[in-house]
Structure formats: structure tokens, C-alpha cells
Amino acid sequence: MVNAGVSVGSGGAPNFLERVVFLKGSSLWRRLTGMDDATDLRSAGLRVTAPRLAMLEVVRSGNHLDAEHIARGVREKVGHVSTQAIYDALNALTRVGLLRRIEPAGSPARYEARVGDNHHHLVCRVCGTVTDVDCVAGAAPCLEPSGSHGFAIDEAEVVFWGVCPQCRAESASPAQGHVGAGSGPA
Ligand SMILES: [Zn+2]
Ligand SMILES: [Zn+2]
């Protein structure tokens, strides 16, 4: 007999709690709870400071910015902040899960405020542009691999590499000379 009833209390789906934790911090969660950045910082155990608030805003309004661009945006909002303080804040916000760090091979780390939903990324090999792609199969199926090898898994990242439409259009121009593969740095 098939058990069609879904009860969300005790004896419910074994993954229910994990799913709730997973949702927490997502933009949906923010909308549902009306949380703001100051509340987020406090509940993460961090002091609420102008640079941290500015950083969350800059990262959210940008598209997977690197530290240099984030620093520029934060300074535009709050004046001088040392580079060390920028990196400290990026690390603190990433550690508590308010920011997510993406580290595509061969390019500087990027940051985003879209956290907790386990989405994936398209990265352009030519210009380094990073684009979000949703997990097509729904709620983070990649968090349940066929074998966990004893790991307590909390994140799965898939990076799709390719060439973005803009770079494809530019490379279609015949003026570009061929760059020999395998040649080392000069
Ligand atoms: Zn590109
Ligand atoms: Zn993203």
C-alpha cells in the first residue's frame, strides 16, 4: 500500500528539517519573514556596522562581484574602508552564510548575496562573466549524492564553463589571430 499522506509533524519526511534550514537565508525566506540586513547581521552574531550594511547592499545589487569591485562600491557609500577591513568583512559575512563565495578556477573569488538555494553558475572562459542557473531538478538534489563517503555535506556546486553570447559574437569577427595553445607565459 502506498502511503500518500504527507504529514509534516513527527514521522514526516526525513528531510523536512534539512529543507527548512536550506531555505533559511534565501531571498524567499527574506521575503517571507521581512528580515532586513541589520537583523540578519545581529542574528548571525555580527555587529551591525555601516561597511557591512553597505557591503550586503553592494553585493546584492551587483552580479557576482569580485573583492575589488565590492571595495569600490562600499567606499562610494561609506567613505574610506581599508582593503584589509573589506576582506575581513567579506570573510565574516561568508562564514555566517550571508554571502556566498564562488571561486571559478583561474579567476578572483566572486561574491553573491543569493545564498542558501544551492543554485549553480555559468562562467564565461573568455571574459569571466558569471551567470546564475537554477537547480533544474528543484530542491538541491545535488545535496544527496549517490555516496557521501562519510562526509556531512552542506553544499554542492556545479560550474558550467563555456563562452557567453557577447564573447561568441566578438570571436566571430575574423580579425582575431589564432592564439597557439600550450604556449607558456612570456
Ligand atoms: Zn564572455
Ligand atoms: Zn549565483
TrEMBL record:
UniProt keywords, alphabetically: Cytoplasm, DNA-binding, Iron, Metal-binding, Repressor, Transcription, Transcription regulation, Zinc
InterPro entries membership: FUR, Fur_C, WH-like_DNA-bd_sf, WH_DNA-bd_sf
Main localisation: cytoplasm
Names of the cofactor(s): Zn(2+)
Gene Ontology biological process terms from the UniProt entry: negative regulation of DNA-templated transcription; regulation of secondary metabolite biosynthetic process
Cofactor note: Binds 1 zinc ion per subunit.
Family note: Belongs to the Fur family.
Protein name: Fur family ferric uptake transcriptional regulator
Species: Haloactinospora alba
